[in-house]
Amino acid sequence: MGFLSTILFAIFLVLGFGYFYFNIKKIVRNINLGTAVNRKDNPKARWKNMAMIALGQSKMVKRPVAGILHIIVYAGFIIINIELLEIIIDGLFGTHRIFAFLGTSYNVLIGSFEILAFLVLVSVFTFWIRRNIIRLKRFANKDLTGFPKNDANYILYFEVVLMTLFLLMNASDLHLQNIPGGFSHFIKAGFFPISQFIEPLFNGVSSNLVFILNEMFWWLHIIGILIFMNYLYYSKHLHILLAFPNTYFVDLNPKGQLSNLESVTNEVKLMMDPNANPYATPVVDENAVPSKFGASDIQDLNWVQLMNAYTCTECGRCTSSCPANITGKKLSPRKIMMDTRDRIEEVGKNIDANNGVFVPDNKSLLNDYITPEELWACTSCNACVEECPVNISPLSIIVDLRRYLVMEQSAAPNSLNAMMTNIENNGAPWQYNQQDRLNWKNEI
Amino acid sequence: MSEVLIVPTMAEMLAQGKQPEVLFWVGCSGSFDDRAKKITKAFIRILNRANVSFAVLGTEESCSGDPAKRAGNEFLFQMQAMMNIEVLNAYEVKKIVTACPHCFNTLKNEYPELGGVYEVVHHTEFLKSLLDDGRLTIEGGQFKGKRITFHDPCYLGRANNVYEAPRDLIQKLDAELVEMKRSRANGLCCGAGGAQMFKDAEAGNKEINIERTEDALETQPEIIAAGCPFCNTMMTDGIKNKEKESEVKVLDIAELIANAQDL
Questions:
Q1: Where is the Cysteine-rich domain (chain B) (predicted)?
Q2: Other Cβ atoms closer than 10 A to A152
Q3: Among candidates B136, B135, B105, which has minimal Cα distance to B120?
């Protein structure tokens, strides 16, 4: 490879990684639109979660078919990307198969990359069939129409193209290696358990053309990877990166435990304090932002909830296990996450367009994206949280939005208002007198 | 059967200068709901039989605040919680047992931050510990060989990872424990959690309790065992809807054990 191709390669690399970095910074900025929450306690348990759930995929295999296929694609993705290191070095320094000096180890590496690439192709093909021919319920669900549906398929096509290019690159390389007397710099290196079957394709083609094709496959492969990397930001596929922090910063408390709002605690304590002077002038902090109970928009959610939204890969396991959704209600935990992400993106674009300041747009996550009807259908059963392969909690967002509806807008369904009035008046959700609480003792 | 239930209150205990081993938190369902009151009594019969030193709060007990919190009313929840905590702390309560997974979850997980730190156990865990310590012995009796399926309450199972205690108890009855296709961590909600007990369901094509009752009926059980007064109501309604009440009974684990002992 000449000087020119080295320069060209470097430019592609800088552009690819540069734009990727630019978008990552945007995601970090958007996630930080959320409120603070401390998730740094107990690092041991957190690292363990990350190792088991993100790296070890322990929750994926709860559904074995999808789980095992996913592990293959995931392993393929990680391991084949080791090859990327060689490609980058070769590209930048004009070398060819720089790691070939590793000898047998190199052969084993290339051989396993090839087998993985083949298995990835098989898995991706199966995934495509599940999505488009069998149409599993969670993929045919109405949450996934338009872009989200196409997005999932684009990713699969991308994988097919990249893996095919990788195998074609090796096949043409092998063909040139096998030319009696050698061809240019194509040394004998690597072991090609899969592409050896593709190699005969080049029989009868002139060596020079095979060489050009080989160059082309090599270039398309690396450019494809750079495009794929930059597509991540626009797709549901960010989970390949965010699954790791997402499983690290997960809520470690028992699933049944909801947070106690601190702002409420302060008020309730004051209310119950017999020594509090109701006529005292409250200490007013001029700069304090008036606190809002619950959440109506993404800025009221905490940053982990926002990261959850970017991490969601729309697999729909949550929705397929949601009792409300199973029985035909509008609530879909997956849609809660997709809506949250869409709203974050909208707010982010608003900030970009207004020199870094959010200009109110008369819209909010609540009502414009997520309706009260969806929220009130939730039984808080935690099935969605249990199902999520990367520990996203749609429930925590549902509860925060309900809090806003009830505490800021008194907009609970009437029957719930009646229940709450009963608790307030007589300490039970039904209209029974607290003084009658022990009557059962004497009833026959 | 003339029954004499011994149900001391914390106030009576205090007057006698005694501190019970455990406080039985009855809960609103257990106090007022006709079906749940039977569960309360069954559990007390077992406590009496095992000579457990316990007491209830009686008229000093108030809603734990769970339905208010799940509905989004944090104010009401925290007011209830702090009032209850004042009472519990005044009696220097250390250990609480309750037959309601909702109270169990709230008292165990959400009270500590507000100043109420207790050892909280579900009645199935407590009964299991009585058996393990040899304070209670049970034999199969009338449930020997019966097909029993257990419906996991969300707030006991997924929410707090208690799956085995109720199952161990069923097996102690020499019954045939049959699992539904969705069980343990994959269990389907009965439809009552998250304050749904107190409202109508949103528009859909089915009630959740019917879906869950169908899960249970698939196992062809003679008894559906529950561990939560809300689940009990929902499953009982489901069985009625399917017109199976003559063939399938819905019973709480405490009732199974009390009945097996002819208590």
A1: 22-108, 148-235
A2: 21
A3: B105
CATH 3.40.50.1860 maps onto chain B at 10-129
Residue spans of alpha helices (H) in chain B: 10-15, 27-32, 34-49, 66-71, 74-90, 101-105, 123-132, 164-172, 208-218, 229-241, 253-260
Terminal CA-CA length for chain B: 9
Query: Whose CA is closest to B213, among B241, B178, B246?
Result: B241
CA distance B9 to A441: 11
Query: Among residues B257, B253, B210, B200, which one has the least CA distance to residue B235?
Result: B210
Tell how far CA A178 is from the center of its chain.
44
Candidate from A327, A413, A441 with C-beta closest to B205? A327
Spatial distance between the Cα atoms of B7 and B155, rounded to a whole number of angstroms:
27
**Segment 156-175 of chain B within 8 Å of chain A by CB:** 158-161
Residue A203 corresponds to which tokens in the numbers above? 């029989």
CATH of A292-431, one of 3.40.50, 1.10.3210, 1.10.1060, 3.90.550: 1.10.1060
Q: Which residue from B minimizes the CA distance to A385?
A: B158
Per the CB < 8 A criterion, the answer to whether B238 and B210 are in contact is yes
CA distance B55 to chain A (A): 12
Question: If you measure CA to CA, which chain B residue comes closest to A294?
Answer: B72
Enumerate the residues of chain A whose CB falls inside 8 A of the CB of residue B31: 428, 432, 436-438, 440
Cα–Cα separations (whole angstroms), residue A230 to A72, A90, A238, B175: 22, 22, 10, 59
Hey, is B149 helix, strand or coil?
Answer: strand
> pLDDT per residue over A154-186, tens digit each?
999 999 999 999 999 999 999 999 988 888 888
ipTM of the modeled complex: 0.96
Using DSSP's 3-state secondary structure scheme, residue B153 falls into: coil
CB contact under 8 A, A412 and B208: no
Contacts of B113 in chain A (CB under 8 A): 260
A86-100 burial, b for 16+ CB within 10 Å, e for fewer?
A: bbbebbeeeebbebb
Reported pTM: 0.94
Q: What count of other Cβ atoms lies within 10 Å of the Cβ of residue A310?
A: 23
Q: Which CATH architecture has domain B138-260?
A: 3-Layer(aba) Sandwich (3.40)
CB contact under 8 A, B71 and A373: no
Query: pLDDT (tens digit, 9 = 90+) per residue, A325-374?
Result: 999 999 999 999 999 999 999 999 999 999 999 999 999 999 999 999 99
Which of A304, A47, A265 has the alpha carbon at shortest distance from B65? A265
Q: Which residues pair with A421 in a beta bridge?
A: none
CATH for B10-129 (1.10.1020.10, 1.10.8.640, 3.20.20.70, 3.40.50.1860): 3.40.50.1860
